[in-house]
Design a protein that fits this description.
Blueprint lengths: L3 E4 L3 E6 L2 E4 L4 E4 L2 E3 L3 H12 L4 E3 H8 L7 H15 L9 E4 L3 E4 L4 E5 L3 E4 L10 H15 L4 E6 L6 H15 L4 E6 L11 H12 L3 H11 L1 H4 L8 H12 L3 H15 L5 E6 L6 H12 L6 E7 L1 H4 L5 H11 L4 E4 L5 H11 L9 H9 L3 H13 L3 E2 L5 E2 L12 H14 L2 H13 L2 E3 H8 L3 H13 L4 E8 L5 E7 L2 H9 L3 H19 L7 H10 L3 H17 L3 H15 L6 H15 L1
Helix pairs in contact: 1-3, 4-5, 7-10, 10-11, 11-13, 14-15, 15-16, 18-19, 18-21, 19-20, 19-22, 22-23, 23-24, 24-25, 25-26
Bound molecules: adenosine-5'-triphosphate and magnesium ion.
Length: 606
């Protein structure tokens, strides 16, 4: 069973159907499902809900939710985006949160106060068990030891989206703090840019934590003497004696001066204690912080400093990414380390699931199913489990059990993941790129470039150019070996990085257009394969079925069944013919009767 929290006393809960916001317990519910929100996104939502109907300015929210902290408006926008994603709301046609351009936000849904009865028992998911990463933690621990010895360490932690970089760093932080009271860990988060970001934003954020911590006064003194332009960025923390002098300093604050000052300040701060500076998601870093890496790395001084920067390689692969060249240079000169966080192995997926389900036995075949569909990416695993729970396929009363056999589970893209990927597609891709990838998705999980181009109605060169850009970064798709078609045409081939990506693009295609795309794919494949069409009968049957060309679909299904029968797979051949029978029933007479008779005869001879 979940750990249960017994709550006494009447609690005020705000309801805006289908959601309920429970401020006491910091959670958002949709029916009896808890909606995942980060603590800060929850605070943003809660603030807006409590002021529902009123315009809340950005500044008001920043001041209230981040008192004494340096935060730029982009961070607020990111949290608003997270809240909208959780609520399934859209900025264009909002149902819950309206954006009032340049003024702020307004919660527009009707909010009711409801009194939650006393003695309510709320399920609270148990803490997720930390899985694997022994080697990575060991490596990070070794780097920390070197930093403690005065050799500065810069460590880049690479890994695809959701693979567990933050979770690894959290665990490293916990262990570092538990083993040495003299270590300070500070963190700064890079945010996806919506405008011109504040120079050195993540470092400012990290320093803010240190200034408010136990050594705050000491740090403020160091900044006042070594990095006054930095101290000036925290007006609410300034002492009266600093205010006057800093007023003059700010006037001369250039990016170069700030860079020099922060390096000197770090040297002083780390003179007698070790500092771990964690910079999260540096694929979104702004150029000043990139310069920070560059300049810091070449300073030949003893420093008990360890900088840990997490990033997604896909983003950094962009040719013009500011950090790419700097990181490369540091690697070549041995001035930084790189540590790659990989997806879970099948054993680790099993361990993760076993931990989640309270160490009871897992349903048969369940771990394999989850591994297959997630490729071992923990974020995908979490999303799949949520989906299975939401759709009633999995009961997570412990021990877990599935309400249908594993073989009958048809896993769709979990809705939270779909929303996230759709946001990405809408925000980041051009119309032409979307079209190309939609056409690719209509061809299947992997696709020939020339067929994709024909489906997208683009020139083959243009289509290939677009795909190459994505494949180079291994973003959404990657390259397979080129393929020589039976008619002699040689074409590149691509594959979606994950079936989820293909599905998200595919679902965006309107039904009529989707049918036309399949028809074009089928025609193009037939013309290139002509006599050899039998080798791709499965694909052709699928395309013709999806384009409502029943007669052609049945024709190719019969070829598929013949192939199956030839290799002795009679039960497969039977189910293919049975499916063909379903399609033949859609044909007009006399094709319907004739086709049915032919198929039944084939079934009898199997
Ligand atoms: N080692 C682990 N043990 C248990 N759960 C994990 C582990 N690694 C990741 N997870 C789970 O997977 C999810 C995603 O992990 P995390 O946020 O650390 O990924 P990330 O690589 O930082 O993603 P992003 O690229 O979005 O920053 C989280 O819900 C986390 O609980
Ligand atoms: Mg992360």
């Amino acid at each position: 069973m979940y750990p249960l929290e017994i709550l006494t006393g009447v609690r005020q809960v705000k309801e805006f159907p289908p959601f309920r916001l429970d401020t006491d317990n910091q959670c958002l519910w949709r029916g009896n499902q808890r909606v995942a929100l980060t603590p800060k996104a929850f605070a943003v939502l809660s603030y807006l809900v409590h002021r529902s109907g009123s315009l809340v300015s950005q500044n008001e929210m920043l001041d209230s939710l981040w008192p004494d902290t340096f935060v730029q408006p982009e961070v607020l926008k990111t949290h608003i985006l997270d809240v909208r994603t959780a609520l399934g709301d859209s900025a264009k046609n909002p149902v819950f949160i309206e954006t009032m351009p340049r003024r702020g936000y307004r919660f527009i849904a009707n909010v009711q106060e409801v009194n939650q009865t006393p003695q309510v028992m709320l399920p609270r998911p148990g803490p997720a068990k930390f899985i694997g990463r022994t080697k990575e933690l060991q490596q990070l621990g070794d780097f920390l030891e070197k930093a403690k010895g005065g050799t500065r360490q810069i460590v880049f932690v690479a890994g695809e989206i959701g693979v567990g970089k933050t979770t690894l760093i959290d665990m490293f932080e916990q262990q570092a703090l538990a083993t040495d009271a003299d270590v300070r860990v500070i963190r700064g988060q890079c945010v996806e840019g919506f405008g011109t970001p504040e120079p050195y934003y993540p470092i400012l954020e990290a320093l803010g934590h240190l200034l408010r911590g136990q050594d705050g006064d000491q740090l403020a003194e160091i900044l006042a003497t070594r990095a006054p332009t930095w101290l000036a960025k925290f007006p609410s923390l300034l002492k009266p004696e600093h205010r006057e002098t800093l007023h003059h300093e700010i006037m001369g604050a250039t990016k170069e001066r700030m860079l020099r000052e922060i390096c000197e300040a770090l040297e002083a701060i780390t003179a007698n204690k070790t500092v771990v500076l964690i910079l999260e998601d540096v694929h979104w870093v702004e150029s000043s912080t990139v310069d920070f890496f560059d300049v810091l790395s070449v300073r030949r001084i003893r420093e008990q400093l360890m900088v840990v920067a997490t990033f997604r390689p896909v983003h950094l692969a962009l040719v013009q990414h500011p950090l790419k060249a700097v990181k490369q240079r540091l690697l070549v000169h041995g001035l930084c380390q790189e540590l790659v966080v990989d997806t879970f192995s099948e054993i680790e997926v099993r361990e993760y699931l076993t931990g989640k389900c309270g160490h009871g036995p897992l349903p048969d075949g369940f771990a394999e199913l989850i591994y297959r569909h997630s490729d071992g990416n923990p974020m995908f695993i979490v999303a799949i489990l949520d989906y299975l729970r939401e759709s009633g396929l999995l009961s997570d009363e412990q021990p877990w059990h599935l309400n249908v056999p594993v073989s009958e589970i048809d896993l769709e893209v979990p809705s939270s993941l779909r929303r996230m990927l759709e946001l990405h597609i809408d925000r980041r891709l051009t119309e032409e790129e979307r079209l190309a990838l939609e056409a690719g998705s209509a061809c299947g999980i992997s696709f020939f470039s020339n067929v994709g181009a024909y489906v997208a109605e683009m020139t083959p060169d243009r289509f290939e150019h677009i795909c190459e850009i994505f494949a180079d970064r291994r973003q959404l798709i990657y390259s397979l070996d080129a393929f020589a078609m039976p008619d002699g045409t040689v074409t590149p081939r691509y594959q979606f990085v994950h079936t989820f990506y293909r599905e998200v693009f595919y679902r965006r295609i309107a039904p009529g257009r989707c049918a036309r795309m399949h028809k074009r794919a089928a025609e193009c494949l037939e013309s290139h394969f002509s006599e050899q069409s039998v080798t791709i009968a499965v694909e052709l049957a699928w395309h013709f079925e999806k384009s409502f060309e029943w007669a052609k679909a049945v024709q190719y299904l019969q070829l598929v069944a013949e192939n199956e029968a030839k290799r002795g797979a009679y039960s497969e051949a039977t189910s293919v013919l049975q499916h063909a029978l379903e399609l033949v029933a859609k044909l007009p007479e006399p094709e319907n009767t004739k086709g049915k008779a032919r198929l039944l005869e084939k079934l009898n001879t199997l």
